[in-house]
Amino acid sequence: xxxxxxxxxxxxxxxxxxxxxxxxxxxxxxxxxxxxxxxxxxxxxxxxxxxxxxxxxxxxxxxxxxxxxxxxxxxxxxxxxxxxxxxxxxxxxxxxxxxxxxxxxxxxxxxxxxxxxxxxxxxxxxxxxxxxxxxxxxxxxxxxxxxxxxxxxxxxxxxxxxxxxxxxxxxxxxxxxxxxxxxxxxxxxxxxxxxxxxxxxxxxxxxxxxxxxxxxxxx
Length: 219
Ligand SMILES: Nc1ncnc2c1ncn2[C@@H]1O[C@H](COP(=O)(O)OP(=O)(O)OP(=O)(O)O)[C@@H](O)[C@H]1O
Ligand SMILES: [Mg+2]
Prior knowledge:
The protein is of the alpha/beta class. The chain is built from 8 helices and 6 strands, in the order E-H-E-H-E-H-E-H-E-H-E-H-H-H.
């Protein structure tokens, strides 16, 4: 049975596609993986995948798209047969789609930047998580800090306060602000396949953390 990982957030531009594509590339190197782009017509993950195919780098990874929650549920059932991991790049709105992703996912990752607007939008998302928990109380949703400025006290204080207020666990690994993320995305590669060692190492740590959460090794 496939593990489903949903990358959700109601605000745009927070790093959903960045995390989805990097996770997909790294997990596909280990086991058959499908990347499902639900953020159409924008289709960032789908465009990234098209470039990846042109560069003959898509071994182990397939791409699918879904426009609504009904299509997504059917698609996941089909793709779960032949894949070990399904990575869902969620749209910024569409409450029904987001709820379906939360209910189906073994793990939901919520990218978040240390800015007020991104934090307010996560408060909106809490409603969808609460609704999904009525169907499945064991929903596991965790924050992932993105574009995090580790050396600023403000960012650290903000992240502590948000963690407390939202009551959501967060990944230990935080992604820094690095041009490698946009350079890799624009070329159909992961940061693991790009030249910035710091980005490569933090993404490897993030994927390792995700794996251990799914194995139940990290609470
Ligand atoms: N940690 C980071 N450092 C630098 N740039 C980043 C980082 N994370 C994401 N970006 C860049 O910010 C832009 C938005 O990121 P991304 O596309 O992953 O967000 P999204 O939530 O999927 O946005 P959208 O609403 O457009 O789908 C992209 O150009 C991406 O390369
Ligand atoms: Mg996106």
